[in-house]
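Posting this for the archive.
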Amino acid sequence: MLYVLTSNLAHAMQAFRLLILHGFESQARAAFRGVVEIADLLIMVLADEATYRAYVTSFEDGKTNYQHWKKHLSPAVIRASLSKFEADDRISLPIDMTPEEIRKDNYAWLSRFVHFDYAAHVVAAHPSHPDGQWQRMAMLGNVGEISKATLAHSLVYLWISLLRLEKLLFEKHGWDRLRGDRNRAWFRYRARALDELFLAYLPTFWEEDMPLGLDG
């Protein structure tokens, strides 16, 4: 199960990387929303046995399978379960936001570029230069200033997800016994690297682009 989810997560992250590097920013955000949904599911499958049982259960009948997914595994259900789980088992962050607030902001921001939001579509069609000037219409991919926002949201989301996965794997699933301290140090090294990137870059970004719902 862990291999299946992490393999799909790696594929989704690689798809996001290729899209954003080639200037397909709107499509990259749609792809990263897929990354978010897989990462959230991975966390809840590791955190909650009922979610794990629901995940590995399938039905031949399409309607029954859909109803099972909608009741137990849909993104809305998983996000609600994850919010409750994180409220009961908090992770300390060196910023004035909780993981729940970050997750809510990220999903809302990414969803704007998946659904029919005119302003988001205009931004995707006319990505701006770093100096704020509009580029010509992007027909085959243009890298623009908004790439910074996309990368900022993805970075912070991966950061908090890695912290949560490390805690679950080593404290709940006994990876310290199976893998030893060296593997946990591997997780913590990458978490610290993301900490440094976050503290060096993202606060400036947040000052200019306040997260959704947190600007008042």
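Residues 210-216 have pLDDT under 50 and may be disordered. The chain has ten helices and no strands.
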